Amino acid sequence: MAESIRVLLSEEEVDQRIQAIGEQISRDYRGKQVHLVCVLKGGSFFMCELAKRITVPVSLDFMSVSSYGSDTKSSGVVKIVKDLDESLKDKDVIVVEDIVDSGRTLSYLLEMLRDRGPRSLRLCTLLDKPERRVVDVNVDYTGFEIPDEFVVGYGLDYDQRYRNLPYIGVIEFN
Ligand code: IMP
Ligand code: MG
What we know:
Oligomer: single chain
Number of helices: 3
Helix content: 10-25%
Strand order of the largest sheet: 4-3-2-5-6-7
Radius of gyration: 16 Å
Bound molecules: inosinic acid, magnesium ion
């Protein structure tokens, strides 16, 4: 079966939106340092672009999680595959994600990170599929709300491929 990619959000649109979020975060955190926590692997492209556009001091850390349960439906119980290197104690933390879908993984993850004593904890996602939400998650910064379609690019994969596309596309099977 051949696959093709239909552009949903162009490279220019994504770049402009990330610039705007970077400016917003820089205003909101004036006089502070932000600690960005990237959820690998999907969040990595977005976090790097975002970090470059934030003008207050920034530190970065990475974690990798996998959800227990079937491959197609996340259970919401998260296993830490790679934990953060640094403590979150008294830091102003922003979790950077590629997409919020059901919200199961993130609601669990945010609870877990809150227990580590950050001064503040916010969530920034490039994409949000609100129609798919099962568990309530408070998103502080959203790039784009998109319809319920499977998207790839800018860190998002289909079977580990297409993460490197510089735009967001919908995968179509012909
Ligand atoms: P959930 O919010 O717990 O359902 O899980 C969200 C995760 O599912 C994201 O971090 C992605 O890894 C993955 N995901 C959800 N929707 C898509 C999509 O459209 N394309 C690629 N990955 C997706
Ligand atoms: Mg993800």
